[in-house]
Amino acid sequence: MTTDETPKATRREWLGLAVIALPCLLYSMDLTVLNLAVPQLSADLKPSAAQLLWIVDIYGFMVAGSLITMGTLGDRIGRRKLLLIGAAAFGLASVLAAFSTSAEMLIATRALLGVAGATLAPSTLSLIHNMFRDARERTFAIGIWISSFSAGGAIGPLVGGVLLEHYWWGSVFLVGVPVMLLLLILGPLLLPEFKDPNAGRIDLVSAALSLIAVLATIYGIKHMAEHGVGWRAVVPILAGIILGTVFMRRQRHLDDPMLDLRLFRNAVFSASLAINVMGFVFLFGSFLFIAQYLQLVVGLSPLQAGIWGVPSAMAFILGSLIVPMLAHRFRPASVMAGGLALAAIGFALLTRIEIGSSVALVVVASVIFSLGFTPVVALTTELIVGSAPPERAGSAAAMSETSLEFGGALGIAVLGSIVTVVYRSEMAQSVPAGVPADAARIAAATLGGAVAEAGHLPAELSAHLLTLARAAFVEGMQLSASIATIGLVVTALVALFLLRGAPPAAATKAVCEDAVLL
Description:
Structural class: mainly alpha
């Protein structure tokens, strides 16, 4: 059946899309809003350094580890049902997190938030794919879906900053409660239910294997980014790879697998996953050093840095709305390659940043690469989910989100490690005489440590240390941006080659089961 014969979406579907966008916006807000609350909750709950890291990281870990299970669960019990269950759990966990009385309680409630949050992306994305059967409308709807994530990331620091000016740290969690209540009220009225009518029982062993494999691998990658290569990073990564291999082998022998490996026979599905990972390596890695540059080199507050990040988020939203117009006229390979080339130009601008450079240069560069990156997000998402049969849409959506998480974690590890290695190498030879040994060791490890220690030194010595530390960081940032520029050009070429046979959205078929499963 061709796109022209496919029924158009009605008012109910478009109103349902607005309802779907609400939890997606909140999902990305929860990833960013906590960072501003760290000083207040640290003073109140007095967590150890390790506990503070878990408070910040456990949400993202549990989201990444639970995505495959939740995507498959939605296919089995119903995507709307899973979304509403997740919304109720997210609201409850938000209240518990807001009123946590200990670091341990906050870690546990953040973990529950992560599990609940993992229901949102695959459920909402697979619902969009079922609600919008027309290819052009579906691509536009996915653009709106992506924009909601970007908008949440943009307004998270702003909302958090306003709340923390007037209320206690727990208020940043309560923002999600009315949103989830609204979803629970409107969801049953506006969202249809979809599930695999022939689905079997979920395999609990596979669910455990996928969770532990993803958690171990991402934990190891993040540990490597923070502390370098060592057994505490290598062992979890190896364990994750081994468990992931066992998970894959188990899927081959199950009558009703959690992850249908036949999806990977579709060249477009596999290529889109690979491009997603490669692209997010460079995008997420850039967020790490840009945030540090604005706060630790330029000297902006977290709220000010968040405000300067709004233009980049707006460019991402704008690009997400433009991509559907391009997707029905040009092949995905061309649109994606063009976007990646534009993103490479943005990173090339970042290589020109120096101490004393205008913040406008960072903003312009981030706007350019955000605008250029939107075709990758929008089109790979459409291709990945569109390549799967309808009853496997939730599983495919989960794979799309998992590839994003892996790419992001790997990008932070690789590009973050490059910045760290350059910084430590420069500072090992540059810490000025007169800085106490303990302070010199801390300052030589990270720029944040140097800024903290400089506050305890005499004015002239402090200024000298800060100048050297900031120069070392900027040098590492320039090298990292150069590598990202080259990597994005390579990714553009990969997209041109691997997706050369994928047709424009207007020419795609509404149903792809035969292509996937033959």
